[in-house]
Write a structure and sequence with these properties.
Length: 102
């Protein structure tokens, strides 16, 4: 009764860019379907489709955000978060100094 048809979630795995490029190349050859490639390498079909889609975006064959743009956005978001935290610290310090000088 415990499993009642539910599958265990697959543990998250990390793959090198080289491995992803090889999988995408296999899918683009056309010898095997995306589903077949995914099954042969014990990958999820969704992940392989995402890798193929991202490779098409990076190659300019499809509209979307390139990998380089994604990396830049992530870096800018991290910097934005850090700057907001710095600003909050400065606001608190300013308020503290203002109270002490009264």
């Amino acid at each position: 009764m415990e499993s009642m048809g539910k599958k265990k979630p697959r543990p998250r795995r990390l793959f090198t860019p080289e491995f992803k490029a090889e999988i995408v190349a296999l899918c683009r050859q056309g010898d095997r379907s995306v589903g077949r490639v995914a099954k042969d390498f014990d990958l999820t079909e969704t992940a392989v489709r995402d890798w193929v889609r991202q490779a098409e975006v990076d190659a300019g064959e499809r509209d979307g955000t390139t990998s380089g743009e994604r990396e830049e956005l992530a870096a800018l978001r991290r910097e934005n978060t850090r700057l907001r935290q710095d600003l909050e610290v400065l606001k608190r310090a300013t308020a503290l100094f203002a109270r002490e000088t009264r």
